[in-house]
## 1
Amino acid sequence: MEHAHALGPILTARAGYLWLIPLFPLVGAFINFVFGWRFERSGRKRLVHVVGVGAMALAFAVAVCAFLQLRALPDEHRFLQDTLWNMFTAGRVTVDLGFALDPLSMMMVLIITFIGMLIHVFSIGYMWDDEAKAYWRFFGWLNLFVFSMLLLVMGDNFVLMFFGWEGVGLCSYGLISFYYTDREKAAAGMKAFVVNRFGDFGFLAGLLLLFWGLGGAWAASGKAHGPTYEPEAALHATAGASTAAESQALAPTVEVGEGQVVKVGPTLNFRELRDQVVIEKTGIAEHLKDQKVWGFALLALIGICLFVGAMGKSAQLPLYVWLPDAMAGPTPVSALIHAATMVTAGVYMVARLNFIFALSPAAMAWVAFVGALTAIFAASIGFFQYDIKKVLAYSTVSQLGFMFIGVGVGAYWAGAYHLLTHAFFKATLFLGSGSVILGCHHEQDMRKMGGLKKYMPITRWTYLIACWAIAGFPWASGFYSKDEILWKAFTSEHLALFGVPTPWLGPAIYLVGIIAATGTSFYMFRSYFMTFTGEYRGGAGHAHEHGEDPHASVAAAHHADPHGHHDAHPQPDPAHGHVHAAHGAFPHVGAAAHDAHDAHGAHGGHGAHGGLPHESPWTITLVLSVLAAGAVLVSLLGIPAAWTGHEPLLEEWLKPALTAEVAFAEKPHSWEFLFQAIGVGAGAVGFLFAWLLYKDGKSTVPAALKQRFLAAWTVVYNKYYVDELYDLVVIRPSLAWSRALSWFDGHILDWLVNAVGAVTRGFARIDGLIDTYVVDGAVNAVAVLTAEGGKSLRRLQTGRVQTYLYGALAGGLAVILLNFLIH
Amino acid sequence: MLHVGLHHFLVLGALLFSLGVLTVATRRNAVGVLMGVELILNGANVNFVAFNHWVTGGISGQVFALFVIVLAAAEAAVGLAIVLALFQTFRSIDVRTADTMRE
């Protein structure tokens, strides 16, 4: 990989206020968690969302200030640094509580705070009448979620990133299990948490490998160091440092010209890492490339391990299963998870570490490959879902796949751009679906919607715009990001699998991607047509139709009762729960349906509206309008160079952060136009099919097709039985394994422990006997002998002078006699 | 005619000494014990004088004898005082009663 121009170390600018950005949501969360229930109980419920939204607004305001400051700086200076204090120092490694903003994290912070703020506003309308009666808890978690995500993107080192990484996992658990009295929803939260833990393990493993690989003292080559480097001195240096300054002084450095010195060696700081890897003169990049672990290239291992972490957070195959279940949470949570936070973490991390990934074509190929597979896999599941939120969930998984294609083939800015556009249109879609669900009295099944455009015009238009964007039609943002990604995938020349360059992989990924894009367009417009066109189907029962659905539609069948029936028995009936229990260890289909059921039960008073859908309150429609406008306007940031002759604004903006240069084939612009046309064509094909099959809900073709391909339909409808597969492959073996271990523990280990105990007790008893009889006996014997001796000897002491005289005389006699004897 | 020589005196001294020891060892009466002590001292005196006369010459043995006599007088005075104290304490001068030092 050749660098067109030599890169220098990042020049930082101080911005002492950055800590305020995560602080506000944290304080908001604190206030709501500690005092929120008092506000709510004392009738000042309004305060809860004033605090929640206020914290977000303040954070956004500070973020905008930071953006303005960053923008005013020259390109190579665009790095704001705010170090609060040193958290710990170990040898040459220092970890600060420090925040940093470069163009990439700036973009993320703006997305998180802006869309997060809008979602907070949306939640006011959505959660006000919620039956859980925990308005404060909802806003507390929401704020904490945003705080964690801000920590993740703003932390200037891996430790803070990992705090945030785990924090969003925790908060997603708290929010998905928001209705924790429902076992299935609580289980969905747990599933999200556990699946994420799998990914986190990979992240941690990759991080430690990277840390290890940067070390040079044990490496044979020693290239990592400058000419003045003394290995022994460096080794000894690990001893002394106790403060950051000392540590800094001890760290091995390489001079890279004009008095610029770069710290090399193991580090947790992104900037230090970036400087030493990116600047060729330090030799660190070569050093990393040369290393192998058990015959595998170290860099590929690092990249793949880190990507496993990204898989967990960003819901890629095979760790995507938690995301659809995350629908168990309230809809704003889904929007927050899917649009602004959490799932973008993985993409962000790969983009942040672009310089590491770029060094390993194998790791990048895997990222792109898994991304493409996920994109088409999740899109196909989305085809036949009836739950509007499920469609969107699988759409998110699929779109995340696109982002990974982008960052995987080396088009980091395109991946990040898709992240941005997706944040807008997916937030619109999710909040739109939330508005629909609210308007239809907590109905989520699209078969019981239809014709809503009459009742909810604003929701309908915003939803349509977002569909337009996600399907990839020009003038809405999705087109620019998706086409850029696919174009870059096609021209990619960087990928390699198992050390062999694979020029065919890029076009293959392109092909998969374009099919997935067609599918995206199809299922999104299907959801649009089913929801908003035709006649409203909410009033009548559709039990006969549901009855035909095998397996997974059991929950839906229950669900299909007429509304009046629901109100008659608001408690979930036991048979319903039983069906789910038999269905598998993870609640998937059931969770969302159950949600609606319960919500409706508690919402009996809603029937007074006459059962017809209604438009949502102004907070919701306002948010939808803003987001839909955003979904169109962010397209301005990514108008391709082929159109204007000027590189896209966002690419230019992100350039200082995404320094890795990856080889792409040079193709004339005419090719690019052709591919854009193909992209639009793919979207149009998807739209056309959706229009033909689902427009106004009149066509009988879908039902006929379903009958014709019932087996295939069943497999896809049940999400390829992946959850069941997990149940079979992961959960049951682990349960069996734990049972075996439990048996082993209960029988073998306990037996061993007991045996050891028994032997010890036997020994102790013998020892006790010895002690009692031998040792005590000896001691007592000495005592008794002494006492008896004393008793008998005391008779000699008569106190009479004459007795003593006898003694003296006897002594004298004895001396005399001895005298005779000796001679 | 019996010739009186050193041996006779030595035998006399030994007899006196032995009788003195016997008296000290066996008498119950404290005054008797003191008298036994006088016998012992005088047995020794006989030896001093006899050896002075027959063996060494000069007067040193006789001076020793005189010293012993003075010493015996002093001893008798102290001894009798002890006997008086003994009597006042135990209302008896039997030496067997004075055994409170036994334990």
## 2
Amino acid sequence: MGPQHPSTHGVLRVKLKLDGERVISSECIIGYLHRGVEKIAENRTYQQFAPYVDRMDYVAAVSSGLGYCEAVEKLLVVEAPPRARVIRTILTELQRIASHLLWLGTHALDIGALTPLFYCFREREEILKIFEKYCGARLTTHAFRIGGLQYEAYDTFEKDVERFCKDFESRIVEYEDLLTQNRIWIGRTKGVGILTAADAIAFGVTGPVLRASGVKWDIRKAAAYAAYDQYKFEIPVGTTGDTYDRYLVRNAAIASDLPPSHRKYSRRTNHGESRKGTEAATGRGLSCDRSAQGRNRLLRCERRHRHAVSRAHPAAFLHQFASVRPHGARTPGC
Amino acid sequence: MADEPKEPKPPQVPTGEKPASSTPAVSTPPAKPADASAPAAPPKPAAPVPPKPPVVLQTPLDNELVKRFRATLGAALFEAIEDRKQAILTVERARLVEIARYLRDEEKFDMLSDLTAVDWPKREKRFDVVLDLYSFAKNERLRLKVHAADAEEVPSVVSVWPAANWQEREVFDMFGIVFFGHPELKRILLPDEWQGYPLRKDYDILQQDTAWVRENLGIESGQ
């Protein structure tokens, strides 16, 4: 089986041993897309190498960029400024949604459903537009720098993210309407490719696949990076670990990914209201109205960030975090 | 824009651990007078910031886990340190499987999140084989290291963590380190007929290219 043309998704060759139509054993042959990035890295400085990580998963470049920057920052014992961490989190969550959308669209396409692809790409396009406005690139963004960000968020960043989040809540329902109860979809995914929790752990599986197998674990909570420690969100888990569960878990994840940016960056007016509530007593800001949002997952932000976003304009804070600009490595506590 | 303003105060990082990048990226502001860790205060240009105490990156580690490890497998532990909050145990190569099984069963490090290697060409035992373990129960990470010389084999931990299968193949592929006890040790990313082991430090980045050009085009590549 395979290998496919290099431009198709997933270049993999599987040697199969068959008995009639039954697969008795298989051997995977990989490496068709191996580009030797480690060797390239050996010959580059840390900053020079940063754009290369975008190419590792070119449909989730922001995420790999974050991982790389955080790793180098850890080596240097520096930390990005709080505002940079928040913007990183927002962009990364948007990227996560974009990445999930690409998966959902193409997965449905492979099964024969054409419509979800158009829906998913419609929303993904909105995210890519935000990236493009932020840094000029859509796929290989190179949005972050070691120690901070390349750019301050642009003027209408908040508005764009808010608009996207608002629209997207109804869009998720559309996908679910198309697929979740769809007979063909269920027939092709339920009970297929079951991975037990024990196997998943033994084989070092993480992320939504692990969660679909019923392990309630999310790196964003277990070892919170960027600004994730300031958000509350749920960890959706599956029960059987089949493809259908992985679909449900990812879909729920898209929904729960949604609000951080939403809450965080916008809804200033709600700050005032929520402070009247119990949250104010604990000294924490609640940045959204729970009842108004059926899908609210990420709700709370620390006071200092409420402070940060409640200013008239994000740029008002620039002077504090001047090092958000490139090369702006800051030591902890600044 | 991504121009290069001069670097702000460099944090005192370098230890012997990392290979210092030989060339600074682009322009550097006036030559730094002293090594970052020098305690004296040489006349720094425009530096009103008081010098920070040097950052200690590596400290000896002696927590409960290490104590228990010593009690059970004492002789096999060469060194236990903590580096930037990461616990690192350097252990005896020959007893790796036993140690791995102990850590998985007794200390609940049930996931092998990474297995890789590092080449230190000047060292007598040039390779570090590095295992990153994770415990779901404790939400803890642990790094295991074993040293291996060029021709020395490393025990395979596939029997302990199945995840090691492809990882060890990759290390074999890239570094030429042989894992004995591995069910099917062969190249994984590169073609079987590939010459050499690319992630060894003495493998030149242009080597493959020039060889290919010579072989297939019959000329010198001139790179």
